[in-house]
Amino acid sequence: MPLRAPPLLLHLVLLLLVPALADVPDRYSSPRTGASAGGGLGNSPAREYLDPTYPAPRPPPLAPSCVVPVLSYSFANTYGAPPATAAYAPPAGCPAPWSLVVLSFSVAIAGDQYDRVAAVWLDGAELLRTTTAEPTPDGVRWRVRKDVTRHSALLRSPTGGVLSVMLENLVNDQYTGVYNVSVSFEFHGAPSYLADAGFSAGAGAVDRKPATPTLPESYFQPADLILPVSEATGNSSGFWFRIQNSSDSRSKIVTIPSSTYRAVLEVFVSPHSNDEFWYSNPPDIYIRENNLTTGRGNAAYREVVVSVDRHFAGSFVPFPVIYTGGINPLFWQPVAALGAFDLPTYDVELTPFLGLLVDGKPHEIALSVVDGIAEWLVDANLHLWLDPASSSVSAALGSHSTPRLSITRRYITRLLDGSFEIGAKRKYRFSGWVKSSFGNFTTEVEAELKATSLVEFSDQGRNKTVRLQAEQDTEVTVRSSETRREVGKVETEAKFPLWLEMVTEDGENGTYVMRTNLTHSLSVETEAEAQGLFERETKLADEQVAVGWMLVRDHSVLNGSAATTQAYRYSDDAGRYERAIDTLDGAVLSDNVTESSRGLDVAASSACCRGRRCHGIVAAKCSDIAAM
Ligand SMILES: *[C@@H]1O[C@H](CO)[C@@H](O)[C@H](O)[C@H]1NC(C)=O
Ligand SMILES: *[C@@H]1O[C@H](CO)[C@@H](O)[C@H](O)[C@H]1NC(C)=O
Ligand SMILES: *[C@@H]1O[C@H](CO)[C@@H](O)[C@H](O)[C@H]1NC(C)=O
Ligand SMILES: *[C@@H]1O[C@H](CO)[C@@H](O)[C@H](O)[C@H]1NC(C)=O
Ligand SMILES: *[C@@H]1O[C@H](CO)[C@@H](O)[C@H](O)[C@H]1NC(C)=O
Ligand SMILES: *[C@@H]1O[C@H](CO)[C@@H](O)[C@H](O)[C@H]1NC(C)=O
Ligand SMILES: *[C@@H]1O[C@H](CO)[C@@H](O)[C@H](O)[C@H]1NC(C)=O
Ligand SMILES: *[C@@H]1O[C@H](CO)[C@@H](O)[C@H](O)[C@H]1NC(C)=O
Ligand SMILES: *[C@@H]1O[C@H](CO)[C@@H](O)[C@H](O)[C@H]1NC(C)=O
Ligand SMILES: *[C@@H]1O[C@H](CO)[C@@H](O)[C@H](O)[C@H]1NC(C)=O
User: Fold this and answer.
1) What is the pLDDT of residues 575-624, one digit of tens each?
2) Residue ranges of region Disordered (predicted)?
């Protein structure tokens, strides 16, 4: 009898002890002993969790303001239940138009619980996609504040509005945590000095008739109408479409006003179950060759595609948001992973497609996920700007063809070791003209999307490396159809590299130890200009670096230690804001904020990212990723 077991046996033994590595990273529940699990460092754990981003913009001085509490609900055993609902009506004391509206989503929870996904809808149109933090026995709380000024058209809607919140939770003897959620809105009116400066909706450049028309100011203000592109049966199971596979395309039939002169689709998306960690999934061949039972396959490329009447209209690689139970839950105490509390949304400029849509007839807007597996929660809002002076526009889409996704795959497998490389690229250019009372404008959308992905297993599958680099450049140019002169342009460059290295070792008694290093960042740069109105540049760079280990049995973290550093940097013409946070074992070691302002007047500093004036065009609303 040889002393060493043959390799095959070794693998089988290994699979019994450590999880199938194709199943890693995974989601775990936080240690019962509280956030400060290990290291014996004696940091006192934070009870207030946070997501350091740009603070919600300050309302202009002297503006009237109102707070409207809408819903309070305890989400206990809500799995499979309809969303919680409450009646909504805009505040009588703060009538529209608003200079700023903030949605506040506050949560408190104690006990043991997994992270959960949640969403807030108003009359079926989504306002917030969020995921929850995992609690400690002592309890944690946090508050998400989101600027929803661009959703004014929904919030203005007369009485009869219904706000819905979905949060599917499971409570039993082990997982005891009940999520207490409250939702409110803060409305800030438009003070007269802004209203006088053409701030109120509809004030445009209609009466000016220069040789080359310019874009009206209303173009850069919140849309006049927002139509949900979401599940019709939402009041029973949530308004998100539940996309199950790559051929599963979900759609909504919409009829839009014939006076629409601009259209932008705002897409919400979150992957779950077998695709929660899509960026680290191996291809099916690796799973088959090793007789693994995991459903986490289809390799590591995903792209969300939008179509209008079966015409490809735009796409994006979703930013890989890590939920708070993901990879190593100790990383996310008390600072949540990038975007986990306010998932990025993606704007797809549909103005070139108005030629298909403005005939007063029903049309189909569809959403699908390239290579997606169950399940993706996806829906969208169609933002529409209407011509105040005419009941119909005329429009046409230029020549159209579906852009090719060029994808190369290099897979090498040797039993549990393997290297899986993917390179993906898609480039497209659409154009269409719209003639409204403002003039005849041609909108061109040009986009290039590039992604490279590497998933590598070594040391007989015990080590795993993940490297994702996704990049999307988008240019939206508006020209006078007659003179071809450029009247407006927005360029957006989004990049999000992710690097992850994990080593798994067998522990005692059915446990294992996982050591992980992670670097994750999001960078979005936007340049926007409109003739005679403004010129603006914004830059966002947000990065997290985390190092740590954890001792795990099944899905429970028994011990561990983790350090996370986050550097958030935002700048625009009005100033810069930086925040750097250092955490160790659930405690904040340092939290430094540096802020400088270029001292512009209030009206200018409330422009674009900070206020409402440029929301329409600067879709990269500070933290949002524009796929325009
Ligand atoms: C957790 O691990 C640390 C470091 O190895 C050790 O000192 C501590 O005793 C462990 N705690 C528990 C509860 O096992
Ligand atoms: C959640 O709400 C319930 C009912 O109001 C309350 O008993 C409980 O203490 C709350 N939990 C937390 C963590 O605040
Ligand atoms: C849910 O929506 C459908 C379709 O709009 C409607 O017929 C039904 O009455 C609603 N149910 C509830 C409980 O609101
Ligand atoms: C994809 O999902 C849809 C919806 O669940 C289902 O009807 C269809 O059979 C699935 N297709 C494949 C190839 O699995
Ligand atoms: C997978 O299962 C098949 C059939 O039982 C067997 O022949 C093969 O050796 C197994 N492969 C591995 C890597 O265990
Ligand atoms: C796996 O990771 C461990 C710890 O970082 C390292 O010592 C070892 O060399 C790695 N093995 C391979 C094959 O890369
Ligand atoms: C608008 O401009 C386009 C492009 O120059 C032209 O083809 C179209 O006829 C114009 N539309 C109207 C209604 O003038
Ligand atoms: C091993 O785990 C079992 C069940 O989880 C527990 O009862 C037992 O005490 C553990 N043994 C050791 C040596 O930790
Ligand atoms: C992870 O980071 C630690 C500390 O910076 C370093 O010592 C270790 O080598 C890194 N591990 C890997 C696998 O890169
Ligand atoms: C915050 O500032 C202090 C003092 O300058 C410094 O020691 C610390 O490293 C800074 N923290 C971060 C996360 O940059």
Assistant:
1) 999 999 999 999 999 999 999 987 544 333 333 433 333 332 233 333 33
2) 32-55
Q: Is the dihedral angle over the CA atoms 34, 37, 40, 46 positive or is it negative?
A: negative
pLDDT at 113 over 60: yes
Q: How confident is the model at residue 273 (pLDDT cuts 50, 70, 90)?
A: very high
Backbone angles phi, psi at 159, to 5 degrees: -50, 155
131-140 tens-digit pLDDT: 999 998 889 9
Mind listing the pLDDT tens digit for each residue in 418-451? Answer: 999 999 999 999 999 999 999 999 999 999 999 9
Q: How far is the CA of 481 from the centre of ligand 7 (A)?
A: 6
Comparing C-alpha atoms, which of 276, 256, 273 is closest to residue 264? 256
Instruction: Identify the nearest ligand to the CA of 233 by its number.
Output: 3
* Ligand 6 centroid – CA 510 distance (Å): 22
Burial of residue 122 (number of CB atoms within 10 Å: 0-12, 13-18, 19+): buried
126 residue type, one letter: E
Alpha helix ranges (H) inside 574-617: 602-605
Q: Which helix (H) or strand (E) holds 103?
A: strand 98-109
Q: Which residue type is seen at 12?
A: L
Q: Which of 45, 31, 37, 33 is nearest to 334 (CA)?
A: 45
Quick count: other Cβ atoms within 10 Å of Cβ 145?
Answer: 17
Does ligand 6 come within 6 angstroms of the Cβ of 419? no
Which H helix or E strand runs over 213? Answer: none
Per-residue pLDDT at 564 exceeds 90? yes
Pocket of ligand 2 (CB under 6 A): 74, 108-110, 139, 180
Nearest atom, ligand 5, residue 290 CA: 13
The secondary structure of 360-384 as a DSSP string is SS-EEEEEEEET-EEEEEEEEEEEE
Ligand 10 atom nearest the C-alpha of 566 is: 13
Compute how many other C-beta atoms are within 10 angstroms of the C-beta atom of residue 88: 21
Cα 52 to middle of ligand 9, angstroms:
25
Q: Which atom of ligand 1 is nearest to the CA of 40?
A: 7
Contact 188, 99 (CB under 8 A): yes
Q: Positive or negative, the Cα torsion across 505, 508, 510, 514?
A: negative
Residues touching ligand 7 (Cβ under 6 Å) are 394, 433, 435, 440, 442, 481
Burial call 476-499: b when 16+ CB within 10 Å, e when fewer: bbbbbbeeeeebbbbbbbbbbbbb
For residue 203, pLDDT beyond 60: no
Residue 400 to residue 353: CA distance in whole angstroms: 10
Mean pLDDT along residues 467-486:
97
Round to whole Å and give the CA distance between 504 and 507. Answer: 9
Indicate whether residue 244 lines ligand 4 (CB < 6 A). Answer: yes
| Ligand 4 within 6 A of CB of 248 | yes
Residue 616's pLDDT is 29
Cα distance between residue 150 and residue 612, in whole Å: 7
What's the gap in Å between 493 CA and the centre of ligand 10? Answer: 30
The total of other beta-carbon atoms located within 10 Å of residue 588's CB is: 16
534 confidence band (pLDDT: 50, 70, 90): confident
